[in-house]
Each structure stands twice: as C-alpha cells, then as structure tokens.
Design brief:
402 residues, alpha/beta, Rossmann fold, four-stranded parallel β-sheet, 13 helices, 15% strand
Length: 402
C-alpha cells in the first residue's frame, strides 16, 4: 500500500487507509504500507498508531518538502505558474522518488498479491503503476478525491489541466481495479459502468465513538469539525447567524459557534454579536468527542462541490442534529433530509440558512435537541469501516485472481 497520509500524520486523509489496514487484517489481508516520515506536514496524531495491527509493516520514507518551499515563492512577481509547474502533479512529488524506491525493494522482497495506492497525492498512483509493471502484479488505485475534474483545481494553468487529464487517463487504463470514494466521481478514461470501477465511500468506525455523550444544556453549541480553508469557508452561516442575533430572534449570549480544527484563512472576523471559539488542530479522538458533545453540527460545502466531506458519516453516527449547508444534489443534503437528521439549506441562499438555524434554535428551546439513535443505527449499518473494508477485500480478491 502506497499512502502518503498514514499515522503518525493526522487529518482527514489518514483515516481511510488506516481503517482499511486495520479491518482488512482479520479478513486475511496483511499490509505493507509505504508512507512518509516527513516532519513538514503540520497535522500529526501519534495516537492513531495504536490502531495499526501488529501484522502490518510500515515503511516511512523521506520526502523533499518541495510544496513548502514553493509556498514561499512571491506570487505577486508573476511566478505562480512556474511554481505550479514545478509542483506538478501535486505536493507529493517530493515524496515520489523515495516512495518508489522503497516500494520496489519491498515488492521484490515479498512479491505481494496486489499493489494498492491511495490519492491524494497522485504521485502515489504513479509510483504504484511503476511498481506494478516492474514486479508484474495487479494494482488497485483508490481515489479519495477527484483529480482532473476537481473543482479545487479550476484555477490551475490550462496546460497542467490537460496534462492531468492525460495522466489520469493513463493511470486508470493501467489499473486492474479503480476504487472511488463517491458515486459522482468522474475520472478521465473510466466509464461509470466500467466493471473495474467500485464505489467505496468513507465511513465511520464505531470504536471511535465515545461511551457517553454530554451535549451542553445551558447554551447552544454549533460545532464545525474540520479544517476551514478556501471555498470551505462557512462565513455565510456566520453572517446569517449574526443577523438573527441582531434581530433578537436568537439569543447571542446563549449561542456559541465552535470551530474545531485548523483555520487556514488569511482574514477571519466573525460578525458582531457572534461568539466563536477556536480550538486549532486536534487529534481524531478529540474531534469525534467534540462532535458527540455539540448541540448541533455544521457541515458546509459550497454549491460548486458535490463532495459530502469525509466527516459526514461520523457526524451522522454521533447522533447529533446536523445543519447541512450543502447543495441539494450533495449526499449530505440527501441523507440529512431523508433521515430527518437535522436541517438543510443551500449555501447560496442565506435566507434559507437563517430559516434552518432558527428552526434548530427553536427545537432546542422546546426539547433540547435529543439524541438521534435511529440515525446512528442506520449510519453504522450502512457505512461502518468494517463494511467498507469488506468491500475493499472483495476488490483485492478479484484483482489478485486476474
């Protein structure tokens, strides 16, 4: 398994591969993981090492922090395009040569049944393809995110967009199986009905949920768990809340917005009257505990993105009501609405956001927004990490038998 994001690194990208390794083990699949020992990635969560099974071997390589160095380039001097070219295909390019060499040595030594790689970074897929070709074993490519069709890359130079599409087409053409984290993913050269394509969503590990839940009873705590950055900026929700507080429809003294995770915005100023608490980066166990102890949970995804966020399933399993500010086609919006798991509003409709906030506030005044055990049950039944590992085991079995 080639996976840049693996413990002791932290953050959302780590969870998918870590849980696969953990729950594939009792299904008969033993993993050798090629990752990084890079000290340059800011999110670290050593507690996750306890979840790595004893049978797994983890090989951590060096990584040249090229992305960090290029972030210092003075873009106002017109060097942004040069930096983008040097950092192509992604920030993992400085890890790729070390990962490739380490994976080749391990594959020659062990002759694995299957090569598996997870992106981002895409550099892991490139390394996996080379190892697969050299060693002569099948390769399964797991896309946690889209690449060529990714809305977050819309502003990249056109030449790089064309190169990304061409390389993506070559990668999926050579993979024995392609796993995608959502049904809406569109990959160049891979049809939706391609028999090699398998959708395995992100899930939730029941073992991560705390034994007890103690939401605040004297104040309403709306928690956003996860990094705030770029277009994932929930400021429209804060503005709507500010107007409700200003108009006296919500008591600002009894309402707190809690931002749990990193805040990567150059300028962030809450509207007048809106109380915001910031925790900074926290480990995964603390993040899940924060979810379970909130009055309600905020999920914000701009209308331009169909990505439901990997934390959706943990949000649902927490049993706390969700304020899903996502587009109507987003899986989060569909589940929250269909399961009566909270309130839904379109990100571009601040009046609807106000209405959803007010509805949750009034429900809290009436009944304290009780736990939702039926939502938790459905989530664990359909989206448990054990279940997703079983799905991947079938994919690996099929690839190994090719």
């Amino acid at each position: 398994m080639l996976a840049y994001f693996f413990p002791p690194l932290g953050g959302a990208g780590v969870q998918r591969t870590l849980k696969f390794v953990r729950y594939l083990d009792p299904l008969g699949w033993v993993a050798t993981v090629v990752s990084t020992r890079s000290r340059h990635y800011p999110a670290r969560d050593p507690s996750l090492l306890d979840e790595v099974p004893e049978s797994a071997e983890v090989l951590r390589t060096r990584a040249v922090p090229l992305a960090n160095w290029l972030s210092l380039v003075p873009y106002h001097l017109g060097l942004k395009r040069v930096a983008a070219v040097l950092n192509w295909p992604d920030g993992g390019i400085g890890w790729m040569p070390f990962a490739l060499a380490t994976a080749l040595r391990a594959a020659r030594r062990d002759r694995p049944d299957v090569i598996y790689s997870s992106s981002t970074p895409q550099s892991g897929h490139i390394s996996a393809l080379i190892v697969s070709r050299v060693i002569g074993v099948p390769w399964v490519a797991d896309f946690r995110d889209e690449w060529a069709a990714d809305a977050f890359r819309a502003d990249q130079p056109r030449i790089l967009a064309r190169l990304a599409a061409r390389l993506e087409r070559g990668l999926v053409r050579n993979a024995s199986r392609v796993v995608v984290a959502a049904d809406y993913f569109r990959l160049e050269g891979l049809a939706e009905d391609d028999p090699r394509r398998m959708v395995i969503v992100n899930g939730v590990d029941e073992a991560d949920l705390p034994a007890s839940v103690t939401p605040q009873s004297d104040r309403f705590v709306l928690s956003h768990v996860g990094t705030v950055y770029g277009i994932r900026d929930p400021s429209p929700v804060l503005r709507a809340l500010g107007r409700l507080i200003h108009d006296g429809r919500i008591d600002g003294e009894r309402f707190t917005v809690r931002l749990v995770g990193s805040l990567w915005l150059e300028r962030f100023e809450p509207p007048p009257g809106v109380r915001v608490e910031r925790t900074g980066y926290v480990g995964h166990a603390t993040a899940v505990e924060e979810m379970c102890n909130a009055t309600a949970l905020l999920l914000y995804v701009p209308s331009s993105s169909l990505a439901p966020s990997g934390k959706l399933f943990e949000y649902l399993a927490s049993g706390r009501p969700i304020l899903s500010v996502t587009g109507p086609k987003n899986l989060a919006s569909r589940l929250v609405k269909g399961w009566s798991a909270g309130a839904v509003a379109d990100p571009s409709d601040e009046a609807a956001i106000e209405e959803a906030l007010l509805a949750l506030w009034q429900r809290w005044l009436e009944n304290g927004l009780p736990d939702q055990p039926e939502v938790r049950r459905k989530t664990l039944e359909r989206y448990s990490r054990r279940r997703t590992a079983e799905q991947l085991a079938r994919v690996l079995d099929e690839a190994a038998s090719d």
